[in-house]
Amino acid sequence: MIADEFDAFVTPLQRNRARALPWLTVMAGSLVTAIPLIATVPLLPPCGLLMLLAWRLLFRFSMRPWAAAPLGLLDDLVSGQPLGSAVLLWSACFLLVDLIDQRLVFRDFWLDWLIATGLIVFCLAAGRFIAVPLEAHVDLAMLMQGVAAVLLFPIATRLVAWVDGKRGYR
User: Fold this and answer.
1) pTM above 0.85, yes or no
2) For residue 166, which of 8, 53, 12 has the smallest C-alpha distance?
3) I need a labelling partner for 135 at 20 to 30 A (CA). Which of 25, 88, 109, 158 fits?
4) Average pLDDT of the residues of the chain
5) Nearest-CA neighbor of 50 among 165, 152, 167, 162?
6) 3-class SS letters over the chain
7) Mean pLDDT of 55-72
8) Looking at residue 97, what is its pLDDT?
9) pLDDT of 105-137, one tens digit each?
10) What gap in Å lies between CA 52 and CA 160, rounded to an integer?
């Protein structure tokens, strides 16, 4: 915390609850797909993936590297994707972010947004090839879903930063 923002009367969350909060927000993002929405075009972005990438890019040590696998499994169970697709793709995203972290010394928000854009497009494209036959014409819907996800990433990072500020654990 910054010294100007310190409030002696606000008690931070307990250690276990503070560690569980990133997991719970990613799970809540995955559960957004269970909300019954009627749409002619699937514009709902992968909110669980957005939250996972926001936590990983903003706060590197908030989740362990293996956390992508069980969170991806929950996303597969809730979203109806083939079992194991989000486990594989989200774990690959974590590994790619680790590779990028090794190469880069400094990242700002724009670079985080660029990294998240590439990873979102990668997950949507790979998920399309895993789940849908090649003859299906879903490319335009997938493109619109990707654009919506990329444009919602700053909102996800803002939400993650707000939740991290509320958990009060460093």
Assistant:
1) yes
2) 12
3) 88
4) 88
5) 152
6) CCHHHCCCCCCCCCHHHHHHHHHHHHHHHHHHHHCCCCCCCCCCCCHHHHHHHHHHHHCHHHCCHHHHHHHHHHHHHHHCCCCCHHHHHHHHHHHHHHHHHHHCCCCCHHHHHHHHHHHHHHHHHHHHHHHCCCCCCCHHHHHHHHHHHHHHHHHHHHHHHHHHHHHCCC
7) 92
8) 94
9) 888 999 999 999 999 999 999 998 998 888 888
10) 9
Percent over 70 (pLDDT), the chain: 90
Determine the pLDDT at residue 40.
75
Q: Whose structure tokens read 């040590």? A: 61
CA distances from 129 to 104, 119, 144, 146 (A): 30, 15, 17, 15
Q: How far apart are CA 83 and CA 77, in angstroms?
A: 7
Residue 40 amino acid letter: T
The average pLDDT across 138-155 equals: 92
Burial string for 6-45 (b: 16+ CB within 10 Å, else e) reads: eeeeeeeeeeeebeebbbebbbebbebbeeeeeeeeeeeb
Query: Distance between CA atoms of 101 and 23, rounded to whole angstroms?
Result: 22
